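W.,

You were right to be curious about this one. When I first looked at the sequence I had no strong expectations either way, so I just let the prediction run and decided to look at it fresh. Below is the sequence, 182 residues in total, followed by the output.
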Amino acid sequence: MTREIHLAGYLPDILKEIYEFEQVFNAEEPELSLVFEKCGVILDECFIDTLDEYGCQRWERMLAITANDTDTLELRRLRIKTALNGDTPYTMRSLENKLKALCGEGNFILKYANDIYTLTVGLALAAKDSFDYLKRVLEEIVPANIILDIFLMYNTHETLAAFKHNALSAYKHIGLTEEVLT
């Protein structure tokens, strides 16, 4: 953003010819041009489409995106846009569909309490191995004003009651609560 600065244009005609003003303006005009140029760079950093190398590095650091040395600025900007726009579900139905895809049908419960802005997600023991990943995904996609309560649904007495004692004796005590029973 180059901009020609002529400070003498702001003075009345009678003062434009004074030597001291000319010298001051000659010294200040290049500095003001530099200020306007830097303001343009800062403005460019506010928009993804006009990011330069420095702006891309900042956004990539914030979004934990790893750029290759061979990536062009356009490709890096596209990755940043994709990360920001993401695949965020904005309805309970789309969140439920996402959980079905990640956990499998019937391997979770999903409840939302409108009055206290709390989303409760219970994951079945079948999804136990991916609990940390699912927790991170849910923390990313659930809006910040909603409290996320995510937990594993351990086996309860009600679940164990369906089995005979001989079948349960094959498990250790901790296995009865934390393993998928067959």
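Here's what jumped out at me. The chain has two domains: 7-85, 92-178. And, maybe more interesting for your project: The chain has a mean pLDDT of 83.

Coffee later to discuss?

I.
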